[in-house]
Amino acid sequence: MTPDVQSGLFAGAGALRAQYDATDWSATPLGPVSGWTPALRAALGVVNGTRFPATLLWGDEHVLLYNEPYAEMIRDKHPGALGRPCVEVFPEAMADIGPLLDRVSGSGEATWSQDVLLPLSRAGFVEDCWFTWSYSPVRGADDSIEGVLDIAVETTPLVLARRRSELVARLVSALQDAESDREVVERTEVVLATSPDLLEVRVTAGAAPGAGLTVDPVTDRVQGTPCRVQVLQRHPRARPRHLAARLSPRLPLDAGYTEFVRAVAAAFGSAFDSTAAAASERAISEALQRSLLTQPITGPALEVAVRYEPASELAQVGGDWYDCYPLPDGAVAMMVGDVAGHDQTAAAAMGQLRNLARGVTYSADVWRPSQVLQDLDLAMHGLGMEEVATAVVAVLEDLGPQGQLVHWASAGHPPPLLRTADGAVQLLDPQPGLLLGLDPSAHRLDHEVLLAPGDLLLLYTDGLVERRDAGIDEGLDWLVETVRAHAGAGPEALCAVLLEQARTHDDDQVLLAVRACP
Length: 518
Known about the structure:
alpha+beta, five-stranded antiparallel beta sheet, single chain
């Protein structure tokens, strides 16, 4: 082939023209340009005429001839790849692309590969890359397959962006209902353990060495380069933390990678802010609740114990209460109740309702428990209280040596429990009545039971017996059996046992136990 013909053959190579002209083609498996077949010359024209990354893999050794976009895609492999066999240029990828090339060269069947991972050493290290490409046969004049045309597009940025956004979404989802700092740390480390972009992840107390992402100055292409990223937290009570991890040794630290790491840190930073805010709200609610739950005042004929245990979940402190106080005629009023809701609003409503109940009971001409509940319902309605609550009211009338006569009524509350001096246990379980706050005209019923000397009466809220994985009947059965198993326990000891052995702590727990003194 004359220089003019060769010059025309390589004219479309653009910025690669100098490399094509300088290559000693006679030293390559293709031989001198003058011996190139018409199919090769035509195919090279197609490659240099497209703006997509394209290469020819020619002959039995799949010698590379490619265009400028392809050279940009293979980076450091150019210009040494030009005119060399594929196995010498891409040894790290031959396990994946070799069988495809053989299939096209042997059968003439074109291939299509989409978003396939190919390891490439094109920037000084073996890098994870993804490509979409097609191998097509190039036939000569006799219809034999002389080479393979490869049209390729790198999709690494898209694949990584999709993978990383999905991981951040999983992390946000996992953390959205975390209720403590410990849960945030545990869930973060579990989710990130599945990420190939962050290795050996740890959430560490204290600030990072610098703002944003800090990377070890010595790159580790075997284990992954250590890095630390500051966790951005806005709540004033949130403790400083940072994320310690190793970056993938098979990915470059580009802008997308940096943004991903910061997004991860921001996700669990927001979760820490949420738990700090919930802890603050819990502390306020619990302080308010405890300030209102004063110690009981009783006479010498009664032994009384009370307990208030806030929920284990940060958001569940709410509206449970107890009360115990003497009435003007010497009787003793007792009440346990539960305002619907679990937040500061419920705690505040609990205080208002408890004080209303005290006033209604203490000032009433007749302290029948049913009348107390009805008057309380009317007061709630008249004062515009929109809360709904359950309650049980008991008034203990001293009968002297016979013990105490308990008058009681319930507004949708779990049944009181009676343990007699001989160890028998029963739930006082008539119709519980309508909840407070629904209908101020609802008719309420009174009940009576004798609390003989040594007998014990237990009032409690549903947090003691309700469980997420079982119905309330199972919880009530557990309560009866536990009280029966501790027949000799006094009010203080029984309350301690019940709180210790309760299988759940999802809600507030209030207990009021009273025993008639012998």
